[in-house]
Specification:
The complex is a heterodimer of chains A (337) and B (328).
Chain A lengths: L5 H26 L13 H14 L2 E5 L5 H6 L4 H8 L17 E3 L4 E3 L7 H14 L4 E8 L6 H12 L4 E7 L2 E2 L2 E2 L13 H4 L3 E5 L3 H16 L5 E6 L18 H9 L2 H11 L5 H24 L17 H10 L1
Parallel strand pairs in A: 1-3, 1-4, 4-5, 5-9, 8-9
Antiparallel strand pairs in A: 2-3, 6-7
Chain B lengths: L3 E3 H15 L3 E5 L15 H5 L4 E3 L4 H13 L3 E5 L10 H14 L9 E6 L14 H5 L5 E3 L4 H13 L4 E6 H6 L1 E3 L13 E4 L4 E5 L2 H14 L5 E5 L2 E3 L3 H11 L2 E8 L4 H12 L9 E5 L9 H7 L3 H13 L1
Parallel strand pairs in B: 2-3, 2-4, 4-5, 5-7, 6-7, 10-11, 10-13, 13-14
Antiparallel strand pairs in B: 1-8, 6-12, 9-11
Helix pairs in contact in B: 1-6, 3-4, 8-12, 9-10
The chains are: A alpha/beta (337), B alpha/beta (328).
The complex binds thiamine diphosphate (TPP) and magnesium ion (MG).
Chain lengths: 337, 328
């Protein structure tokens, strides 16, 4: 679409450093026994940040349906390190689920994203329904839905894409393909090479791009965003990304991945790639970089301190958020328990 | 001396022995191959039995269940693993709608000898989508059997019966018991009939009926009360459908007081069914109303430790309800 200029790239790099440092921090908190679970965004950040960059430029308004690996999208949408860490530590004041959910799960309409569920794939039909509503309500919203390669096997994703294509809905399907669904490699997930090849069967465009390359991500997402905005319908994009860490902090990947495979994955680290690009453009040097890292660490340190000190939610609040008229929840409890 | 193993090892042993005994038994599920399952129930299986009998399935639960139904109709004995019971809902179409009705709907021409295994239950910091109890949804379904063991001995014996059963069995394994509950298990072949409850502790002052993880909480409560001279009898259902009504009523005839305890939420849970049966069949035996102690009626178990604890029928809650029952 257009080349990202050095200033923009540097901005994205700054966010990427923040997200990477935050991701590293939550792993540390997990190893210290403070964060119960971590699913890492490492290796996926260019796809996440590049796509939001395109949406924010080319859509009049947009809304993201994310999944558990999308810390980059959440941060780009305005979730602060403090918000994120309250989630990982499940503390009172956690802003998107009131600490009822795993980290990064919940919703913020103001920040324009939702990650309701851990159940893989269920949100893809939701995104299509959201896009249907914006069509009916004549709103300019483009809905973006992120999911993994494993998720692409779910029947309801097929149902959702089919419907979106029939009605030319303003939704873009963004598959972060890291070639693994926990331990199951892509070859056991599908007999075709690319998830995006399925687009043809729905009658929509499908693209496979290097999801570790910020410019490629930006271009293809921009194109899909424009297409959706102009009422021409959905696009299926597949970002080829890397997951070089275990599936989650509960996983041991040594039983199903070779050290060589992991090493190859690491070589496609999007952070390194963007760094090299910035160096080659002459907009990054050691001084700027160490300043960026220092600032990120400071933000995250004070957020960590805040979140560690915060109390857990009060047990009495457990009956909150069940119904609109929540006296039903409490009355039923008092009457029957 | 019998070997002492935990629940996940008992599950693994049962499947391994049955696969060695019967070539029609095979495994299908997400990550069951090289990874050996996310809880390692099938650790080493693909190496031992090969990829044809240990199939890593694409991430699609309704497909896993439906394909298992078809293979079972054709005479194989699939053991389908649904990685967490929270993800079982898309399989209801196949399990409740199809598998449970196949025999009835074909005048017995076709039957579905499959097992669907699924780790369930909470207090593992699993949040809204890795903690749930799903037994009540399925126990409502005639044609289906639902099993939920609490010990390694029961898990192995019941899983063998489930695999050999000619009807579909949902086999629920409480995640928290996997590694925390250990016990003696013979390495010889044995099985436990589906539909038989087990008295895990004898007593005469009150009966607690439960299953799964909360059996162990009930046993703890019984120990506390024993110090006060109170003898609690604990009945482990083991099978939720079919129910062993006889064992429950025999116990109530001794104790005259009944508490039903489960982690699943209260309303419409197994406790409601047992309470109805006992009040219909054994009203005269009772000295107190039947009481229930169960999970809270909220949509699912929350992630924060304080909220998770508030959800659970804890030892304190069990003791409080039991004392109320005894004092009535
Ligand atoms: C319906 C459902 N089935 C199984 C799981 C367990 N599970 C969590 S993530 C995952 C793999 C997802 O792989 P993919 O969609 O490729 O996303 P990735 O984690 O690789 O980014 C599985 C099987 C789940 N959460 N939901
Ligand atoms: Mg993947």
């Amino acid at each position: 679409m257009r080349e990202l200029d050095p200033e923009e790239l540097l901005d994205i790099y700054e966010t990427m450093i923040l997200v990477r440092t935050l991701d590293e921090r939550v792993w540390t908190l997990n190893r210290q026994g403070k964060a119960a679970i971590v699913a890492s965004s490492q290796g996926h950040e260019a796809a996440q940040l590049g796509s939001v960059k395109a949406l924010s430029e080319f859509a009049e308004s947009y809304f993201c349906f994310t999944y558990y690996r999308d810390m980059g999208v959440c941060v780009a949408q305005g979730l602060t390190p403090k918000d994120v860490l309250l989630g990982f530590l499940a503390k009172e004041g956690e802003p998107i689920s009131d600490a009822r959910q795993f980290p990064l799960h919940g919703a913020s309409k103001e920040k324009g994203f939702m990650n309701l569920s851990n159940v893989v794939g269920t949100h893809v039909p939701h995104a299509v329904g959201w896009a249907l509503a914006s069509k009916i309500n004549k709103l300019p919203t483009v809905t973006a839905v992120y999911f993994g390669d494993g998720a692409a096997s779910q029947g309801e994703i097929h149902e959702a894409m089919n419907f979106a294509a029939i009605h030319k809905l303003p939704v873009i399907f963004l598959c972060e393909n890291n070639r693994y669904a926990i331990s199951v490699p892509i070859e056991q997930q599908m007999a075709i090479t690319n998830v995006a090849d399925r687009a043809q069967a729905y009658g929509i465009p499908g693209y496979t791009v290097d999801g570790t390359d910020i410019q490629q991500v930006f271009d293809v997402t921009a194109q899909a965003t424009v297409r959706a905005s102009e009422g021409e319908g959905p696009t299926l994009i597949e970002y080829q990304v890397e997951r070089y860490l275990p599936h989650t902090s509960d996983d041991d990947d040594s039983t199903y991945r070779t050290p060589l495979d992991i090493e190859k994955s690491k070589q496609r680290d999007p952070l390194k790639k963007l760094r090299d690009l910035l160096l080659s453009k002459g907009v990054l040097n050691d001084k700027i970089e160490s300043e960026l890292i220092k600032t990120a660490k400071q933000k995250i340190n004070s957020a960590t301190e805040f979140a560690e000190k915060a109390p857990y939610p009060k047990a009495d609040d457990v009956l909150e958020h069940v119904y609109d008229n929540n006296s039903i929840s409490k009355d039923q409890h008092d009457a029957n328990h | 001396m019998m070997p002492i193993i935990n629940v996940i090892e008992a599950v693994r042993d049962a499947m391994k022995e049955e696969m060695a005994r019967d070539a029609s038994v095979f495994i299908m599920g997400e990550d069951v191959g090289k990874r050996g399952g996310v809880f390692l129930a099938t650790q080493g299986f693909v190496e031992e039995f090969g990829e044809q009998r240990v199939i890593d399935m694409p991430l699609a639960e309704s497909g896993i269940a439906g394909i298992a139904v078809g293979a079972a109709m054709a005479g194989l004995r699939p053991i389908a693993e649904i990685q967490f019971a929270d993800f079982i809902s898309p399989t209801m179409n196949q399990i409740v709608g199809e598998a449970a009705r196949a025999r009835y709907g074909t005048k017995g021409e076709v039957h579905v000898p499959m097992v669907v295994r699924s780790p369930y239950g909470g207090q593992v910091r699993g949040g809204l989508f890795h903690s749930q109890s799903v037994e009540a949804y399925f126990a409502h379904t005639p044609g289906l059997k639902v099993v939920a063991p609490s010990t390694p001995f029961d898990a192995k014996g019941l899983l063998k019966s489930a695999i050999r059963d000619n009807d579909p069995v949902l086999f629920l394994e409480h995640k928290r018991t996997y590694r925390s509950v250990r016990g003696e298990v013979p390495n010889t072949d044995y099985s436990i009939p589906i539909g038989s409850a087990d008295v895990k502790r004898a007593g005469h002052d009150a009966t607690i009926v439960s299953y799964g993880l909360t059996i162990h909480y009930a046993l703890q409560a019984a120990e506390v009360l024993e110090k006060e001279g109170i003898q609690i009898e604990i009945v482990d259902l083991r099978s939720i459908r079919p129910l062993d009504t006889e064992t429950i009523i025999n116990s109530v005839s001794k104790t005259s007081r009944l508490l039903v305890l489960h982690e699943d939420n209260l309303t419409g849970g197994i406790g409601a069914e047992i309470s109805a049966i006992v009040s219909e069949k054994a009203f005269d035996l009772l000295d107190a109303p039947i009481m229930r102690c169960a999970g809270l009626d909220i949509p699912a178990m929350p992630f924060a430790p304080t909220l998770e604890a508030a959800y659970m029928p804890s030892l304190e809650k069990i003791l409080a309800t039991t004392r109320k029952l005894l004092a009535y």
